């Protein structure tokens, strides 16, 4: 469980630098500066917790999908296939920006809902709702985290990994909203350069995880004790 939380936090923290371009403008457009000093922190936390809850829900859904592979004994194969898929997309596209009509439509619908709540009269709960909606925006790093959630093969672990992913993005998003400015261009450029390496490393970890090498946290041994004992009739 510790490894799952650590994986989610790492993807979220490193990925948050890459995702500032998408989520940063939304975070900066929130009317947090109109709030009282004490309430300002509350609404910022609510916004980020809302995103984390959406990620956790996605993690539970995709963890359930991964669990079906576990039930039929294909967890190792699934982990290797997912790792290879990420590497393939990375080689072909250099990023995980998967373009499709579905994602474009989803992006437009979520943005319209966000716009509605952004111009709606302020109340504390609205910030939580905006966070929930923000978590649905298509994003390459979210795809990466979801892939890792599928590989956990568990509803609970999938949700836990994705919630940790949301918490991992919290420090940068919090600082942007408090300081009212995005991270420097040079910092974003430098992180963008290492993002493909980080994504490739995550893919390799998924492949290693499926190889059943018996290495704790990296390639743990899968439980093979699923064979039913023979029934002796007397």
What features would you describe in this structure?
The chain has 234 residues and is mostly helical. The chain has one domain (2-209). Helix content is 74%, strand content 0%. Helix 5 runs antiparallel to helix 6. The chain is elongated, with a radius of gyration of 20 Å. It starts with a helix and ends in a 25-residue tail after the last helix.
Task: Name some characteristics of this structure.
mainly alpha, 234 residues, elongated
Total domains, how many? 1
How far apart the termini lie comes to 44 Å
Structure summary, number of beta strands: 0
Round the Cα radius of gyration to an integer and report it. Answer: 20 Å
What pattern of helices and strands is seen along the backbone? HHHHHHHHH
Amount of helix: over 70%
The largest pleated sheet is described as: none
Multimerization status: single chain
Global outline: elongated
Uncertain spans: 224-232
Mean pLDDT: 78
Protein structure class: mainly alpha
Number of helices: 9
Portion of residues in beta strands equals: under 5%
């Amino acid at each position: 469980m510790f490894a799952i939380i650590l994986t989610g936090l790492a993807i979220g923290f490193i990925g948050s630098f890459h995702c500032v371009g998408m989520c940063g403008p939304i975070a900066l457009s929130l009317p947090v500066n109109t709030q009282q000093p004490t309430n300002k922190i509350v609404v910022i936390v609510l916004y980020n917790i809302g995103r984390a809850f959406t990620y956790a829900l996605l993690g539970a859904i995709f963890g359930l999908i991964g669990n079906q592979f576990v039930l039929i004994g294909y967890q190792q194969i699934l982990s290797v296939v997912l790792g290879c898929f990420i590497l393939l997309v990375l080689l072909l596209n250099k990023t995980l920006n998967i373009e499709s009509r579905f994602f474009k439509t989803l992006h437009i619908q979520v943005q319209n809902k966000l716009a509605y709540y952004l111009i709606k009269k302020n109340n504390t709960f609205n910030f939580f709702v905006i966070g929930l909606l923000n978590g649905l925006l298509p994003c390459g790093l979210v795809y990466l985290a979801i892939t890792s959630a599928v590989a956990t093969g568990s509803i609970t672990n999938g949700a836990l990994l994705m919630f940790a992913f949301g918490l991992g993005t919290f420090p940068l998003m919090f600082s942007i909203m408090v300081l009212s400015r995005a991270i420097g261009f040079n910092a974003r450029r430098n992180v963008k350069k290492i993002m493909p390496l980080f994504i490739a490393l995550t893919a390799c970890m998924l492949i290693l995880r499926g190889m059943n090498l018996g290495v704790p946290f990296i390639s743990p041994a899968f439980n093979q004790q699923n064979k039913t004992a023979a029934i002796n009739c007397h």
